[in-house]
Design goal:
globular; EC 2.7.4.-; polyphosphate kinase activity; 5-stranded parallel sheet; PPK2_PA0141; PPK2-related; transferase; 278 residues
Length: 278
């Protein structure tokens, strides 16, 4: 793949804003048409899945577009049919579900880390295409994205997280273990693609060495893959506020107010003479 320059931040933000406006239009079509949309995000740890999901949902209605990020299965869930715990999270009419990792855990981390048996893995590879064909036959729009990142870039992002107290929580023991199992994950991914890259639910690979390009490319592809149309917007007229009936606001002294911390921050940031005169 030919390496190209990273996009300037201003250009990236401008195109992202345009695409986010289109995502809102798509959301309105989903609501109006009763469509059901499932988007699966998979890929290496630190490949940029979470960042893409964050930009997609930034301006969407959380009642329509919801993120599904399931924790480790409970003891009871481990005894269920594997796909059973995901089914309650599928969309009803007029809903979008974004799976931040999905049933493909079994083909990736569970397979590599030994969290499932070889037979459970083989059964998954047989059943997954059948499961996804059932979703497609029932009218669900299913899109699957694989975020691809090099081992050098992944290590760089892991190191960045270690030095950032705001993102250190993203480094789990399983994430760190993935560094030593790079080729194992590669083989598992290749095998998964062989069995599950089916005509009804293709895998779309997102090159994510550059996070900004990855987000723009993925969102653009998502919008092109959903046959949405503009939904006419009803006119909104703000009603006139009626005349007062004599209501008086409760005295502030009777309320428990949040302290003005930001005012304190502002004063602390000013030179002493300005703070005294403010």
């Amino acid at each position: 793949m030919t390496k190209r320059k990273k996009a300037k931040k201003a250009l990236y933000e401008s195109e992202l804003r345009r695409l986010q406006a289109e995502l809102v239009e798509m959301q309105e079509w989903v609501k109006a048409s009763g469509a059901r949309v499932v988007v699966v995000f998979e890929g290496r740890d630190a490949a940029g899945k979470g960042g893409a999901i964050k930009r997609i949902t930034e301006y969407l209605n959380p009642r329509v577009a919801q993120i599904v990020a399931l924790p480790a299965p409970t003891e009871r869930e481990r005894t269920q049919w594997y796909f059973q715990r995901y089914i309650p999270h599928l969309p009803a009419a007029g809903e979008i579900r974004l799976f931040d990792r999905s049933w493909y855990n079994r083909a990736g981390v569970e397979r590599v880390m030994g969290y499932c048996t070889a037979e459970e893995h083989r059964r998954f590879l047989r059943q997954c295409p059948i499961f996804e064909r059932m979703l497609e036959e029932d009218g669900i729009i299913l899109l699957k994205y694989w975020f691809s990142v090099s081992d050098e870039e992944q290590l760089k992002r892991f190191t960045s997280r270690m030095d950032d107290p705001m993102r250190r929580w993203k480094l789990s023991p399983t994430d760190l273990e993935s560094i030593t199992r790079w080729e194992d994950y590669s083989r598992a991914k290749d095998e998964m693609f062989v069995h599950t890259d089916i005509p009804q639910a293709r895998w779309h690979v997102v090159e994510s060495e550059d996070k900004r390009s990855a987000r723009i490319n993925m969102i653009h592809h998502l919008l092109k893959s959903i046959p949405y149309e503009r939904v006419p917007k009803p006119e909104i007229t703000l009603p006139e506020r009626p005349a007062s009936t004599g209501y008086r606001r409760t005295e502030r002294a009777l309320q428990l107010e949040v302290p003005d911390h930001f005012g304190h921050v502002i004063n602390e940031s000013l030179p002493s003479e300005q703070a005294a005169g403010s």
